[in-house]
Every structure is written in structure tokens, then in C-alpha cells.
Amino acid sequence: MTPGGFMHPKRVRPSLAVVAMLAILALVASLPDAARAECPFATKSGCASAQAAPGACDANKQIVTGYFRCISDPGFKEWDKYFPERVTFNGTSMSQEGLRETLSSFRAGFSDLVFLPMGQMAEGDRVATWGFFEGTHTGDFLGVASTGKRARWFGTTVDRIENGKVVEMWHQMDLLSVMQQIRPAGNS
Length: 188
Known about the structure:
The protein is α+β, with helices and mostly antiparallel strands.
């Protein structure tokens, strides 16, 4: 444990789902082109293939890193730079404004919310990112009134980039850990 009461990032054990997702991405990246074409998890073009633009994976990783900075900004500045008018978030198609409202619910509960990336992998038009969300519980979050407690939880994302913008987002977070950390004293 660190002085703030958080587990050291290198000692956190990611969930089985996170490990499985990263293993699938690594496996797909290692497949020969012929096998990759038949794999349901494969992208249309791998970064190492002749079809992908040079530096496409690095550019896609920069886009994802940029939108995390945007989300960490209370004013959501530069929102249009990262998202088109329609976005798919965890399987639900929504407007850019709907996405902003969805993500604002986290900002309402944790006014100083930031994402601290630990790692990132890119393959074709998809980018997987894992790391920690961190913030002070300053407002209502999932029915729990502000406690003023600091919380830190693990999360992963897989984002799909098209024409330089994030068009599809799959986010997974350890909400059980969040709720355990912000639970008012005396509740078990």
C-alpha cells in the first residue's frame, strides 16, 4: 500500500476479463495475415500490414490519449477534436452530447477525476488502454452522497478510430472497488 492507502499499481491484479482481452489482442497481432482475416477479433488492417498507413497505430494511440486528457478536463475542452456526431459507447449508439452526459456522471461524482494510463497497445484501427481512474468523491455517485474520500480504481478501454476520431468505445471499470472505497463509515 502507498501512503495514500492505494495499492501500488504494480501490485494490482487486473480482472480475468482484462487479462483475457489483452491476451486476445496479443494473439490476433501475432496471427499470419491469412489467419487474421478469418479471426472475429481481428481488425481490417494490422499496423504491420502493407495496407495500414505508416504510423497509423501511433497516431491512433495519440488520439485515445488525447481524449482521456479531454475527459480529465472539467470543461471537456476540445471535445469535437476526438469524437464525431455519433459514437458507440459500450454497445449503445449515442450522440456526442449523450456521450458527454454519460461521462459527466463520473465528473459529477469525482470533480477532480483523472485517468492515469499504465499501458497501451494498438492494432489496426483499435487501441487498448489500461490504467487507473482517480478522484475525490465530491458529489453523488451511483446513489452515494459525497463522502470526500479519495478513490482509485482500475479500468480498461478498447477504442476504435475512424477518420481520426473515436467512433466506438468499450470501457470496463472496477466499480465494486469504487463503491467499497466511497462507502460511508458504518456501512458494510
